[in-house]
Amino acid sequence: MALGAALAGLSGCEEDPEGDEEVEDVELEGQPPPIEDLDAIDTSIFTDGEKRQWVRLINDLLSPCGEPISVARCVQEERDCAQCVPAATYIGRLVAEGHDRSEIRDHYRNRYDEDRHHEIDLTGAPIRGALMGADVTIVEFSDFECPFCRQAHPQLSRVAREHSDRVAFAFKHYPLSMHEHARDASRATIAAQKQGKFWEMHDLLFENQHSLAPSDIEGYARELDLDMERFRAAMESEETEALIERNRAEGRDLGVDGTPRIFVNGRPFTEPVEALDTYVREELALIDARR
């Protein structure tokens, strides 16, 4: 597919920031004229400028099914690829939302390129929503002291709640060294998980993000009526520390260098978190269309 910038559309707490890669368009001679209209796509909502950008992108980006043809030609020729019309629609949504071409290319690659898909081990991970047979799985690498994670928290919780029968939301620990209380906060949720109250502690910590000192965390544990002796032992155990480090190592292997980092069905979600519900609905609609 067309090269895109390694650009995260979701702001976050960065551990090792790097500069964005510039992407230049290349005009090639001898190509057929661009396809400007597709019967399956309503372009009436576009301004003239948006329509021009959409036309350029659907003729530039390759089919999501791996064929060496453009998205536009895949739709026009009605190729045997169920994802082509949704892909053209997706590009249109991103254009209408004001993303620039390099951002759209990268979002597109994250959603459709084979090399952007990752297998993420959820063994032992706390899961909210559909515990078995989820159509969509969201994985978040998060830091309880990161303000951007706090901002993402209501959106993620809402998506998991509204699609609880079909969407699973899994949490991975990624405390950053710049945040004084983040690791202790992760320890607290792991200790609470051992008593069946991970999500209760998770929510309390985000709701009280500016009060994460050890005395505050103990207070939250009492509020949740946890066995304090077991809670303190789990907070200090080597097993708890090892779990945090496994999550961080897994995140690094996936390219995580800041928080929050979100994956949907194993693919990086780099749009603004406010778009997550729309993205999930698009995934569910595509699954329904295949059935």
Description:
Helix content is 45%, strand content 10%. The chain has 291 residues and is of the alpha+beta class. The protein has a 5-stranded mixed sheet with strand order 2-4-3-6-7. α5 (147-162) links the parallel β3 and β4 (167-173). α6 (182-193) packs across α9.
Fraction of residues in H or I helices = 40-55%
Distance separating the two termini: 27 Å
Strand residues, percent: 5-15%
Number of domains: 2
Query: So how many helices?
Result: 11
Spatial strand arrangement across the major sheet: 2-4-3-6-7
Shape: elongated
Number of extended strands: 7
Q: C-alpha Rg, in Å?
A: 21 Å
Largest sheet: 5 strands, mixed
| Secondary-structure-derived class | alpha+beta
Helix-strand pattern, N to C?
Answer: EHHHHEEHEHHHHHEEEH
Provide the CATH topology of the largest domain.
Glutaredoxin
Give a brief outline of the structure.
With 291 residues, the protein is of the alpha+beta class. It contains 11 helices and 7 strands. Helices cover 45% and strands 10% of the residues.
Write the SSE topology:
Layout: E1 13-14, H1 48-60, H2 71-76, H3 84-96, H4 101-112, E2 127-129, E3 136-142, H5 147-162, E4 167-173, H6 182-193, H7 198-207, H8 214-223, H9 228-236, H10 238-253, E5 258-259, E6 261-264, E7 267-269, H11 276-290
Parallel strand pairs: 3-4
Antiparallel strand pairs: 1-5, 2-4, 3-6, 6-7
Looking at this protein, list some descriptive labels.
single chain, 291 residues, alpha+beta, Glutaredoxin, 2 domains, five-stranded mixed β-sheet, two-stranded antiparallel sheet, 11 helices
